[in-house]
Recover the amino acids of this structure.
DNA sequence: TCAACACTTCATGAGTAATTGAAACGATGG
DNA sequence: CCATCGTTTCAATTACTCATGAAGTGTTGA
C-alpha cells in the first residue's frame, strides 16, 4: 500500500457511519480465502441489509459504500437485483501494516502498544 | 481507546501534511520510556524545524500540529522560546490496536495481512 | 412489455476543513 | 524596557464532505 491509498483509506475510516459498516462486514464474507464455509454466509451483506442495520437512507448508504469502495476497503458484487458488499480484509490489513511499518517505521514502542491495547492513561480530547 | 478518539485520530492522520509530520516525529522523542539516550535527541522536534522539513508556513504548521495534538497523537512542550513536539507512541499504537481488535474484531485474515504487508495484488484507486 | 423492486446517481443546501496573510503573544538578548 | 525571534491566533476565502429527496438504472416476475 502506498501513501495516496493509505490517505484514502484513513479518510474513509474517519467517519462513524463507515466505521460501523466495516464492523458489520468483518467476518461476513471472504474474498477467495480458504476459510469459505457456505455461499450464503460468505457473500457479504446486501446494501439493503446494511441500510437497515445502520438505520440510514439508501442514498446515504450508497454514498458511504462508494467512499469505502474507492478506498479499496470494500468490494461490491451484484447478485440478481441485490448488490452484496464484503470487506477487503487484505486492504484493512494493508492499511494497518502501512501505519505500523511505513509511517511509524516499525517503531518498537508503537508495536508494543498496538499489541497491548495502547496508552493506559491516555487523556481525553 | 474508544470510538470518538479513534475517529479523531483517523481524521488527523488522513492528511498528507500531518502524515509527513508523524513520519518526522517517529523515533525523534519518547514520552518517558526507558529507551532514553540523550536529552537533545529525545526532546522531539521544534515547530520551526518541522516547518522547514515539510516546507509549509508557520501558521499552517501550527494548524496541523494542533489537529494532531487534539487527536492525542502528539504532545507539545515549551523550552525557552521554542516549542518541541513529540509523537505519542502509545496513542499511535492504541489506534492500530483499535483498528485491529475493535473494528476488525481480531479477524485472523486482517491480522495476517497486517503482518505480511497487506494485499499482494491490490488495485489502485 | 409493464410494474415492482433494489440500488445508484444527481441536484441542492448546510456544515466543516484547509489555506493564506496579518496581527498578537511569549521568551530572549541588548 | 525595547527590539527581535519563534510560534500561535484570528479573519476571510476557498474547497471539500455530508445529508436529503427526487430521478434514473438495472433486474425480476406477471
Amino acid at each position: 500500500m502506498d501513501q495516496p491509498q493509505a490517505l484514502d483509506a484513513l479518510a474513509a475510516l474517519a467517519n462513524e457511519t463507515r466505521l460501523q459498516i466495516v464492523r458489520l462486514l468483518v467476518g461476513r464474507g471472504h474474498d477467495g480465502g480458504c476459510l469459505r464455509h457456505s455461499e450464503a454466509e460468505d457473500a457479504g451483506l446486501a446494501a439493503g441489509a446494511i441500510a437497515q442495520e445502520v438505520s440510514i437512507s439508501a442514498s446515504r448508504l450508497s454514498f458511504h459504500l462508494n467512499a469505502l469502495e474507492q478506498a479499496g476497503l470494500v468490494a461490491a458484487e451484484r447478485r440478481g437485483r441485490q448488490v452484496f458488499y464484503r470487506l477487503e480484509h487484505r486492504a484493512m490489513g494493508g492499511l494497518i501494516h502501512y501505519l505500523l511499518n511505513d509511517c511509524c517505521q516499525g517503531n518498537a514502542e508503537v508495536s508494543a502498544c498496538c499489541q497491548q491495547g495502547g496508552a493506559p492513561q491516555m487523556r481525553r480530547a
